[in-house]
Design goal:
This protein is 0% helix and 53% strand. By secondary structure, the protein is an all-beta fold. Strands 2, 4, 5, 6, 9, 10 and 11 form a seven-stranded mixed beta sheet that branches. A four-stranded antiparallel beta sheet has the order 1-3-8-7, with no helix packed on it. Strand 4 and strand 5 form a beta hairpin.
């Protein structure tokens, strides 16, 4: 059984940085991409960033492009989300998920295409 666990969230001030970690147990990233989503109170879960199984391609939502960077370390079965220049609008619970589509390199990452989710990590950005 594949398990994902996020960590690295916290409370920071606007302009600060955080690095989120998505660690997989009983799993390798072979052929399946990893995707980060976030959900703010009262809002729907939204796509943030994705990376292919081999780390060669990545995707970002317009709202985080240029500020967030996704990366993968296959040796450690870990995916990272470096978040810089954080603003209060980035406050949300952040989730990582495994894409059910093998060898997918497209631009669409709906939540219903994810087959495994972590429990989430809270990110709070204050003024």
């Amino acid at each position: 059984q594949v398990n994902l666990e996020e960590s690295g969230g916290g409370l920071v001030q606007a302009g600060a940085s955080l690095r989120l970690i998505c660690a997989a147990s009983n799993h390798t990233w072979t052929n399946h991409g990893t995707v980060w989503f976030r959900q703010a109170p009262g809002k729907e879960r939204e796509f943030i960033s994705a990376i292919t199984w081999n780390g060669q391609q990545s995707r970002y939502a317009d709202s985080v492009k240029g500020r967030f960077t996704i990366s993968i370390d296959n040796r450690k079965h870990t995916v990272y989300l470096q978040m810089d220049s954080l603003s209060p609008e980035d406050t949300a619970v952040y989730y990582c998920a495994r894409d059910r589509r093998p060898i997918y390199t497209g631009n669409s990452y709906p939540a219903d295409m994810m087959e495994v989710w972590g429990q989430g990590t809270q990110v709070t950005v204050s003024l």
